[in-house]
Amino acid sequence: MPALLPESAPQRALAASNFVYTLGSGVYLTAGVLYFTQAVHLPASRVGLGLGAAGIVALAVGVAVGHLADRRGARGIYASTLAVQAVATAGFLWADSFWLFVLAVGVASGGKAAGQAARSPLIRHYGGDRPQAFRSYLRAVTNVGISLGALAAGWAVQVGTVPAYRLLVVGNAVAFAASAVILLRLPPVKPVPSTGGPRWAALRDGPYLALTALDGVMNVQFRVLTVAIPLWLVTATTAPHSLISVVVLLNTVTIVLFQVRAGRNVASPAAGGAAYRKAGVAFLASCSLISLSAGTPAWVAVTLLVVAMVIHTIGELWHAAAGFEVSYALAPQHATGQYLGVFGLGAGIAEALGPSLLISLCITWGRPGWYVVGSMFALTGMAAPAAVRWAQRTGARSTVAPPENAVASAPVSSTVSR
Questions:
Q1: Range of 112's domain?
Q2: Which one, of 203, 237, 215, lies nearest residue 338 by Cα?
């Protein structure tokens, strides 16, 4: 295990904080909806409505808090967002009505979006010459933490009692609070002085906004695994239902093993644009294979779905590496939090609209819908290189040298992919 850890203390602290945080996230992603429907007894339709409202809140918060982290110091702001999430998650225990549920989940979702934006300057500051490589490492850590959290959630779902669900909520809140405490081991990060220009420069940066929109469309691919494939497998194929767990495990393990390696091969904005294009082609191939699994014998359906998930996961590796590269490389160093907050808007919109889009096209319409979705990914990927070139042509980006106490990221990219 020591060989898998970054050599620098700040990177280890960030990785440890991220790991503990994602343990709690894994619990919530797996059993959060079930807690509110099975333990609190809220109607599923109202839970969906509340989660949608929370997503809108999250969209509004990320950019503002990212800007605050740039100007006031990222460590304290990020730790505060973790504390807010801990308190809001603990509030789930008292959310026994629809409006209390909306309040609690809205604050928690807003804290999550704010934290993702506020963390970005820390990753850039302590990530060394290649913060994108360290970001890839953190994504691998994230998948490990979510997987372990999902195992704990699986126990509560199997037990199915209200005390078991409430225990998960407590564990989730404790994980968020512990993540904030671990983060305090980091030295404070002084904000990079502004170089002038508009206060909300990211919202006026047309090329960066275009890339945000393209990445948002590509982010719908994350809902393919969590929404479209499970529903398709159950309703349209003869494959055993247990295959859902197999494809999720396959996806997670592959990301843990290969995300850093994928990020190492995407080392420039131009390479990021090319990675987007390759990801789009991979998603088109994956969607096509998934569509063919309907109406086939069980062994054929299993084979097609497993192969499709392998191809989809390769595309996901390229997509994530491309997003890390262009979002950091094309953001001025003095406004990292603000720019990464804007870039997160695409993912937020995809999270809010992606499930209904995929259900309408892939599940309700059926086989033709998979080809439409795959084509959407492929066309988006093909447009990305031109958007990257546009961003590189317009406006000089900040090229401030890494801070003196920044650390090299080579140990990260040389060990985790083993």
A1: 1-187
A2: 203
